[in-house]
Known about the structure:
alpha/beta
Amino acid sequence: MTEDIHNSWKRHLQSEFDKPYFESLVQFVKTEYSKNQCFPSSALIFNAFEKCHFNDLKVVIIGQDPYHNYNQANGLCFSVNDGIKHPPSLINIFKEIETDLNKPYPESGNLERWAKQGVFLLNATLTVRAHDAGSHQKQGWETFTDAVIKTISANKENVVFLLWGGFAKKKAKLIDTEKHHILTSGHPSPLSANRGYWFGNRHFSESNAILKKLGLVEVEW
Length: 221
């Protein structure tokens, strides 16, 4: 299963792959995919690692679960395939970009264009059973993705972490704030956004301002 992870990640994560919990997780996922409809497709489970190479990574966005309806999940958090209706959270992300950066609302909800610029779009749980939110939680994915966050924190410098909502904010404890930058806000889901916890956070211009100050190429959001 890990053959789909780009080589730039493998030397940092090999020790995780060798642990008993990861072997159990792989077996669980293989069984689930053989017996049930699961998302994303098996080839895209590690798409975030394939599209954003470790050496290029400069921004991290943390989601929770993949989308669990047909044709939505593509292995990048908050992202959907080209031509697919934008889910509510993604709509609010794009609306914030519109006002923050004065950019037009994009046609495609596929965030691969961000990943290729060094934005690592990591879900805490990388798989889900169709129409059953949270169905693959507490099977080992969170242990693995926490280890990924710690690996980034330990082996990189000046990464911008965007932590949206209570779940993502809890990941701050895994990040060395002496070396990295953390921006937090409410979640872009309608429930949070409509209460005033999302809109106006200006995370897209703020993260670019940090990158520019570091002499790095800004993200074309």
